[in-house]
Amino acid sequence: xxxxxxxxxxxxxxxxxxxxxxxxxxxxxxxxxxxxxxxxxxxxxxxxxxxxxxxxxxxxxxxxxxxxxxxxxxxxxxxxxxxxxxxxxxxxxxxxxxxxxxxxxxxxxxxxxxxxxxxxxxxxxxxxxxxxxxxxxxxxxxxxxxxxxxxxxxxxx
Amino acid sequence: xxxxxxxxxxxxxxxxxxxxxxxxxxxxxxxxxxxxxxxxxxxxxxxxxxxxxxxxxxxxxxxxxxxxxxxxxxxxxxxxxxxxxxxxxxxxxxxxxxxxxxxxxxxxxxxxxxxxxxx
Lengths: 157, 119
Fold this sequence. Notes:
The complex is a heterodimer. Chain A is mainly alpha-helical.
């Protein structure tokens, strides 16, 4: 049985193609979320909803395609030994914050865009929660860039 | 002892010393060669395997040691061996039972490649 090495990345670091693609997609999605927030400010709520929902679902796809497999291969085996190295700590922090942001985002989309949830499960302060989600997303994006640098960019480069 | 006898004795002594050195020295040289080839070491440092190609005899064990400050793996392209993620200073060893050429790579950083030649 032949094992094909993962495709090499295109950003000139040591990363796989998947990791490089994920980084570029995440930067585009971060920009799209900020643009989507501006749509709401201009009262274009339908476009705002479509934009933020698309980013959220695309991120879910990227988690399944790139981030979860990488986490399972590279970080999960080290969890039993404790997070004894900084590169595991930054990846774990990114995973925890990222999971929180994704779940909160999905909750906001379901609560704001559908009637699936009963009334008592919906929140009231929409703007506050959406702004909190945006800030959290930016923090996750920055921690993701940190994780990428820690794992794939050699100190000498 | 005459001058002729001195020369004969010196020649005989030289021949005896040469034979003794040959008998005593050769096996140890051969043993050292075998030893170094059978226990090949590959260092993982600065996002590369060093040496990139290592040649060993059949039955030799190759040990990879991660000297980098980031985890790496050692994965054979033909599926012969597949290490888990190795942290800094952790090792992975594999014994090669058959002759052949075995290319390998790091699955975390696919630019990192190496080769084990088993003769």
